[in-house]
Design a protein that fits this description.
It is built from ten helices and four strands; from the N terminus they run ααβαβααβαβαααα. By secondary structure, the protein is α+β, with helices and mostly antiparallel strands. The two termini are about 25 Å apart.
Length: about 290
């Protein structure tokens, strides 16, 4: 309790320096929160598209059911396929009718006989799509193969880019926060040199003098993390209606509350660590 009282006393003595420390921490954890939310959302989008049929093989009209079954079995034997769905001519017609139900003219022109049967295939890993696509194209009973390589590859590349940029930005901001915190705590120690000398003369140990400054650094980290997380969460909450309509059909929302609090818990742990390291470096440098 003595250390905490001394810490709050230090904060009250130099409020502008305390505000600067909280702001730099808030900026760091605001960026971390936005990055985590963005990365989580993009990962869910990629997972959504990965769960959809990624390769569609259309059969020739003269293809027999046994040939379709043989090809289906061959596709499954590789062990890379997550699901295989056979779409018959009648099922293809129902899908077509549902997609064009508002245009009677198109419905009258199309019958089940002119629509091809197909296989809709998804794999566990995106890298396996190319091999499955090549195997289907080599089959004599397949007339056409549609491979959604570009869409999924673009999403994966975008997610990887976001991850790399976000990590780089977080590392840079963490180091900036660290050095600014060291400077601020160092300034506070310099301002209290006379008090520290008096405490040493009456027998106070080095660690008795250091702990309030160390707790102060952790305090700035925790407050900054809570404010940064709160701003990011409120921004996400207010933008949810727009994002929901923009990403219609992709099940990203609602964001689970436990996920948000897990993010907060992780940020608080990192904030305490960052505050401890920065204040510890400051006291080792300025308190000999």
């Amino acid at each position: 309790m003595k250390f905490l009282k001394a810490m709050f006393k230090n904060v009250r003595r130099s409020p502008y320096q305390a505000l600067a420390a909280v702001l730099i921490m808030m900026l760091t954890f605001l960026t971390i929160s936005f990055f985590v939310f963005l990365l989580s959302g993009s990962s869910r989008i990629v997972s959504f598209f990965e769960s959809k049929p990624q390769v569609t093989a259309f059969f020739k009209n003269e293809t027999k059911q046994k040939e379709i079954d043989d090809l289906t079995q061959k596709v499954k034997e590789g062990g890379v396929v997550a699901s295989v769905k056979f779409v018959s001519k009648q099922q293809a017609l129902k899908i077509y009718q549902e997609q064009n139900k508002d245009d009677p003219l198109l419905l009258d022109l199309v019958t089940a006989d002119i629509l091809p049967a197909s296989l809709e295939i998804s794999t566990f890993k995106i890298e396996d799509l190319s091999g499955v696509s090549k195997m289907l194209k080599s089959s004599p009973v397949v007339s056409e193969v549609i491979y959604q390589k570009d869409i999924i590859s673009t999403l994966v590349a975008w997610t990887n880019a976001v991850r790399k940029i976000g990590i780089a930005l977080i590392v840079v901001l963490s180091f900036v926060s660290l050095f600014i915190m060291v400077t601020i705590i160092g300034m506070k120690i310099s301002q209290r040199k006379e008090d520290i000398e008096i405490m040493k003369l009456i027998g106070a140990s080095n660690w008795y003098i250091r702990w309030p400054f160390i707790f102060e650094g952790m305090f700035y980290g925790v407050v900054g993390a809570i404010i940064g997380w709160t701003i990011a969460t409120l921004a996400l909450w207010y933008s949810t209606p727009f994002l929901y309509s923009f990403l219609k059909g992709i099940p990203i929302f609602p964001i689970p509350l436990d996920f948000l609090f897990i993010v907060l818990g992780g940020e608080l742990a990192f904030a305490i660590l960052l505050g401890f390291i920065s204040s510890f470096m400051a006291v080792l440098r300025y308190l000999k």
